[in-house]
Amino acid sequence: MQTVRVSIDRAFAIGETDRRLFGAFVEHLGRCVYGGLYEPGHPRADARGFRADVLELVRELAPTIIRYPGGNFVSGYNWEDGVGPADRRPRRLDLAWMSTEINAFGTNEFIDWCRAAGLEPMLAVNLGTRDGDAARRLVEYCNFPGGTELSDLRRAHGWPEPHGVKFWCLGNEMDGAWQMGTKTAEEYGRIATEAAKLMKWVDPTIELAACGSSGRTMPTFGAWEDTVLEHCFEHVEFISLHTYLNDYAGDTPAFLASPDLMDSFIDEVVAIVDAVAARRRSSRRIMLSFDEWNVWYRTRRRGEGRTKLGWPAAPEILEEVYTMKDALAFGGACISLLNHADRVRCACLAQLVNAIAPIMTATGGPAWRQTIFHPFAHFSNFGRGRVLRAQAASPTYAATYYDPRGTADLTFPLPEVPYVKVAAVHDEDGRAVTLFVLNRHLDQSAPVEIDARGFGDLELNQALEMRDDDLSAANTREAPDRIQPRALTGVRVEGGRIAATLGPASWNVIRLAASA
Fold first, then answer.
1. Model pLDDT, residue 305
2. Which of 151, 157, 360, 461 has the most CB atoms in a 10 Å sphere around its CB?
3. CA torsion sign, 321 to 383 to 266 to 505?
4. What is the pLDDT of residue 309?
5. How far is residue 109's CA from residue 87's CA, in Å, rounded to a whole number?
């Protein structure tokens, strides 16, 4: 491959990353909660049932905010079922995942788990089968100090201090036919507005995310966002986006190009929400919460989330095993999020443990890192700071991406996909510059030369690569470290110029110390 030339300049930035950009998602889905982060009786569980081995991996992964309890699950969830004495909580049928919800883990346990992990909690309210009154009651239960029925109920349950939850989601994927309480954009816009009013009257300090369309390929996309925000523009701070990258077609080049469609999706939603603002002659800007994103297709195609018989509790569903190829597409998605840090202020990897997750566990046994764990850990640990405008002159290729989401199978032509995708982050406090670089060429190494201006003389701090000759290789219980980052050798730094050769089909992270 011809040399790829990248230019970055300290003076030209996209924006500062919000710490909430590095979030994740915990839903009552399969073994995400039960048998995942919560397993009383496990050899590594504490007195509250929290698995210490999972907590250790979560801290290493370094998410910053966790969305809970759903997802599809929240559209049928009664939050009151998950508080109070555990032996008095009801068992319920969960229609989202055709399971039995035992309600041993609920809102208060989630808050405690977040505190144990050092994370900010994000709560979603049920606007499928319930309404704004149930939502404002949950805000009062969580956030009001005391002296009312619901705040005193929290205190009686053993949590005397308010939880102080600041970020709330107004339902989930409400345009999806699979959702309990599916709504039109007009119906959802009205209920979201009324819920937002009531919730903010209880606690004016909270921030709210309205549901965007369930995906870019939905027939509702675009018109949904526009209509919903016509109702609730003045009442919310965020609108949500969801996407799952796939390789249904078995077309690796197209799969690795798919993160570029995330870039287009983000740009389109920004245009829509800003058009709503323009019609109001408003300078207010709605930010984006990309609160579900991941690679997901094997267990999705089988539809196994709705095929377990007998209404089991915590069934082994959606336990996607991620490969080296998946980690590359995943890393590309991380780059896309960084390169839209000016408007994507929150994002949540879906999900955290077992169900389409970077962390896997065996019930009663060990926990291990999936391949996608590593790009996310790099993204979160090294991606905090000012995202610079990285101009890359890279050879390109053409691809056609297939996505079956929505009412019809769709294809997306991608005529000019850069083989090399780049993001650059400047951490001014630590005087560090981090380059995230994906080489999508399956057969050729990529010589890369980077011109970094305004940082003085740079020194190489660390260089890592993830690649494997077998793109189907995965981490398993028997071989938990089959795929992991290794040292990227041969990186040369002279003043503000960096040169490296990136292996074919590789995820790379180059960290530099800046003298200025």
1. 58
2. 360
3. negative
4. 74
5. 14
Cβ burial 410-441 (10 Å sphere, 16+ → b, else e):
eebebeebbbbbbbbbbbeeeebbbbbbbbbb
Neighbours of 205 (CB within 10 A): 8
Report CA torsion sign: 468, 471, 472, 474: positive
Catalytic (active-site) positions: 173, 292
Report whether 414 contacts 398 (CB < 8 A). yes
**Residue written as token pair 């980052």:** 485
pTM higher than 0.85, yes or no? yes
120 vs 433: CA distance, rounded Å:
26
* 466 in Cβ contact with 311 (< 8 Å): no
First to last CA, the chain: 33
Dihedral angle sign, alpha carbons of residues 290, 291, 296, 297: negative
Q: In 62-145, which ranges are continuous DSSP H helix?
A: 107-117, 132-143
Dmax (CA) of the chain: 69
Cα–Cα distances in angstroms (integers) from residue 258 to residues 72, 80, 398, 453, in the given order? 25, 41, 12, 30
**Phi and psi for 286 in degrees, rounded to 5?**
-80, 130
Q: If you search the block for the tokens 């389109």, which residue do you land on? A: 268
Query: d(Cα 315, Cα 118) in Å, to the nearest integer?
Result: 28
What are the CA-CA distances from residue 456 to residues 8, 424, 494 (Å)? 13, 16, 10
Q: Residue 375 burial by CB count (10 A; 0-12/13-18/19+): exposed, middle or buried?
A: buried
Task: List Cβ neighbours of 62 (8 Å cut-off, separation of 6 or more).
Answer: 22, 377, 380, 381
In sequence order, which residues have a C-beta less than 8 Å from that of residue 408 and are 6 or more positions away? Answer: none
Query: For residues 362, 367, 368 and 373, what is the CA-based torsion angle, rounded to 10 degrees?
Result: 110
Main-chain phi, psi angles of 269, to 5 degrees? -65, -40
Q: For residue 310, what are the contacts with CB-CB under 8 A and spacing of at least 6?
A: none
User: What is the distance between the alpha carbons of residues 328 and 472, in angstroms, rounded to a whole number?
Assistant: 11
Q: Taking a C-beta distance cutoff of 8 angstroms, is the pair 207, 238 a contact? A: yes
Q: How far apart are CA 391 and CA 452, in angstroms?
A: 11
Mean pLDDT for each consecutive 10-residue tract of the chain (516 residues)?
Answer: 97 97 98 98 98 98 98 98 97 96 98 98 98 98 98 98 98 97 98 98 98 94 98 98 96 98 98 98 98 94 63 96 98 98 98 98 98 98 98 97 72 96 91 96 98 96 98 98 98 97 98 90
Beta-ladder partners of 464: 487, 509
Burial class of 390 by CB neighbour count within 10 A (0 to 12, 13 to 18, 19+) = buried
Question: 3-class SS at 344?
Answer: strand
